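Sequence and structure are kept together here, with a separate record for every protein. An example record follows, reproduced without changes.
>
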Amino acid sequence: MSERGIPEHYLEGYARLLAEVAGTGRRLTRAELAARRTLGEQAAEAGHELRALVSAHLAATRAAWPQTPGAADCTLAAVQQAVDAFAEGYERAQRLAVRQEEAARREFIDDLLYGRSDLGRLAERAERFGLRLSHTHAVAVVQGPTPYDESAPVPRQVERAMISRFGDRNILLTTKAGRMLCVAPGDQDDILTHFAKQAYAAAERTRAAIGRPQPGAGGIVQSYEEALNTLELAERLDLDGPLLRAADLLVYPVLTRDRQAMADLVLDALGPLTRARGGPRPLLETLSTYFDSGCVAAETARRLSLSVRALTYRLERIHQLTGADPADPGQRYTLQTAVIGARLLDWPDKEL
């Protein structure tokens, strides 16, 4: 064994090369460089650290340094060639290993989310990625300004930050359909919130959603789908905040569970707004902002860049058309539910 426990195999022929170069002044041949690259690949596959390998080469260089006068320059050139070729092979093997790991991770995620593998085999593969499918897990999904790819800088940056904080066990990080995913134990919410925080710090206009903790392999799928649906809801409803939780938005899936009933409510409560001179959109926006502002007229007017008098006129016009007074607590609930339904069903842009 050489320095730092590096097997002599990875230095095979190195001292002989330096001696020949010192004696002849020649450069290393293609075959000799290819042999050094192969040794570098083998060292990477065996799990040795590049720093220790370079140190071993330097120690071998010192031990084999020629005493021949004037041989220093050509020997140093040979050392540079040999170590560079060795490192090239090492890095090539590492890149290949990373690509293979990414492919295996993507395949596992696809099989997990789409149920394309039996549960026993899936559980075995999950162990490799630090997951125990018999436990409870939650999933966070991040959507950025542009689609994510595992080889892109942002996912790499987020992964480094996560591993630095939590290690690489019990966490699965990957990309899916242009989004970043993090699967973590259901009782470790700090992992998912840190994931969302790191993603937001890495790129502006990023939004994250966290599904509820669920047990088993099917629970991961359910939590993932909840997170996806939460992102979709956030976009439709124009919800604020970079981090949303499915548990906080459970009322919305309930409202849309009976789509036809919701469509009937929207048309019955808000349909009369189509008779307004400018169409339904200005008055619908007024209602939406009014409810988002806690039914405070001054704040609503400020958000809409209107005077309080102009806002009061709009609210009175809504009352005239719909027969429901937005300022009346007894009638407000129907209008507010209908406004939420209009957002969810994309009315009036889409016919109901």
Remarks:
- Residues 3-97 form one domain.
